[in-house]
């Protein structure tokens, strides 16, 4: 992967960047996505944010080599600390767990002022992001599920709700994704068939546990999730 040829997952993320926008890529990893987006006219400017010194220096070097210093600002900081309110139209966060992504969004909530779109690619735990969207007035407008190098990724795109309308998702939509469960493509079926298999194995072990009371809540949630997924996969 380089600034001319992104991975399939990052290219999918790039497809949803708002045209002619200024966007921030949080956890930018060599600034591949910002460099690609600027070189291909997907955005007018970008901020590449990194918290760790090594990746921060790599991003600086990459932007310098691409001669894109006038379009891309590389900044070191924790999550959304690298941007100011009303500075960007769009934020991308890719390659982290869903729990960490929601933590970054929650911690930097005051920096989301003026942001119109979030493009989020969790490696695991996409349901955490959907829950956060519902609780914070962001509406999912697109979802994609892809497989690359034998790994399955979900890309979630959310838009800020400007009215007082109440945004709600069903339990199945929170877990599986409203767009993904409607499309139900082969990658989706593969992911959730494998999840079901693992969950049933865990449930079987729980049923044999010596102290079932201690795990009753987790067991109940697992049984509920199994029923939700089985219903959607029918």
UniProtKB/TrEMBL annotation:
PANTHER family: TRNA (ADENINE(22)-N(1))-METHYLTRANSFERASE
Name of the protein described by the UniProt record: tRNA (Adenine-N(1))-methyltransferase
Record organism: Heyndrickxia vini
Lineage: Bacteria, Bacillati, Bacillota, Bacilli, Bacillales
Pfam family, one: TrmK
Domain of life: Bacteria
């Amino acid at each position: 992967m380089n600034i001319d040829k992104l991975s399939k997952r990052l290219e999918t993320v790039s497809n949803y960047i708002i045209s002619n926008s200024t966007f921030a890529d949080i956890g930018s990893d060599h600034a591949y996505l910002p460099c690609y987006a600027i070189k291909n006219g997907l955005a007018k400017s970008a901020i590449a944010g990194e918290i760790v010194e090594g990746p921060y220096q790599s991003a600086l070097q990459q932007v310098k080599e691409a001669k894109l210093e006038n379009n891309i600002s590389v900044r070191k900081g924790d999550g959304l600390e690298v941007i100011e309110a009303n500075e960007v139209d769009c934020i991308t966060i890719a390659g982290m767990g869903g729990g960490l992504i929601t933590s970054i969004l929650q911690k930097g909530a005051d920096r989301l002022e003026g942001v119109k779109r979030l493009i989020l690619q969790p490696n695991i735990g996409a349901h955490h992001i959907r829950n956060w969207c519902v609780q914070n007035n962001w509406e999912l407008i697109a979802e994609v599920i892809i497989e690359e190098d034998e790994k399955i990724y979900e890309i979630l795109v959310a838009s800020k709700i400007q009215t007082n309308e109440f945004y709600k998702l069903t339990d199945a939509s929170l877990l599986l994704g409203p767009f993904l469960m409607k499309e139900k493509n082969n990658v989706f079926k593969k992911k959730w068939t494998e999840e079901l298999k693992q969950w049933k194995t865990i449930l079987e072990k729980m049923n044999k546990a010596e102290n079932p009371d201690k795990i009753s809540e987790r067991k109940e949630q697992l049984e509920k999730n199994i029923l939700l997924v089985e219903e959607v996969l029918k």
